[in-house]
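Quiz preparation item.
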């Protein structure tokens, strides 16, 4: 399930959205992913994060792909172009304590912004990470060399 980032409740907020540069909550899409546990799981994530504008994070709600891409309905003045019929996830998003207060990165337990980031984490997490392709089970479905 996708989500808009909403962190712990605090308070304050009047006109916060008016001050929010580029409406931060309209600049991305999230998609929940299964919790990665095996080296193959992380190897797949490495492929995904190798693509432009794909980040990965983990917070209290689990693991997520983060696609950094501005919503096409965001107007140049920072307003929503389909405000009256905007999707439910946008309606439910509170500005009580949001991306304006803490970035997704700072609000996450784990945050990976690219291949090197995640690869470094995998090396620490799995002793045999750099030798994974030598494992029999990894070679089984390997494509022939060209
Ligand atoms: S809800 Fe938060 S992130 Fe979204 S526009 Fe308002 S202040 Fe910015
Ligand atoms: S539909 Fe509107 S509120 Fe929702 S992300 Fe797009 S611009 Fe923002």
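Solution:
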């Amino acid at each position: 399930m996708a989500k808009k980032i909403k962190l712990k409740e605090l308070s304050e907020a009047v006109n916060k959205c008016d001050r929010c540069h580029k409406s931060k909550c309209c600049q991305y899409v999230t998609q929940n992913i299964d919790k990665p546990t095996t080296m193959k799981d992380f190897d797949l994530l490495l492929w995904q994060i190798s693509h432009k504008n794909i980040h990965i994070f983990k917070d209290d709600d689990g693991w997520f792909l983060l696609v950094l891409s501005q919503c096409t309905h965001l107007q140049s003045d920072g307003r929503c172009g389909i405000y009256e019929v905007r999707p439910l996830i946008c309606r439910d998003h509170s500005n009580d304590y949001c991306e304006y207060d803490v970035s997704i990165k700072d609000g996450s337990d784990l945050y990976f912004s690219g291949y090197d980031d995640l690869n470094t984490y995998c090396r620490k997490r799995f002793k045999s990470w750099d030798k994974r392709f030598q494992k029999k089970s990894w070679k089984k479905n390997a494509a022939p060399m060209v």
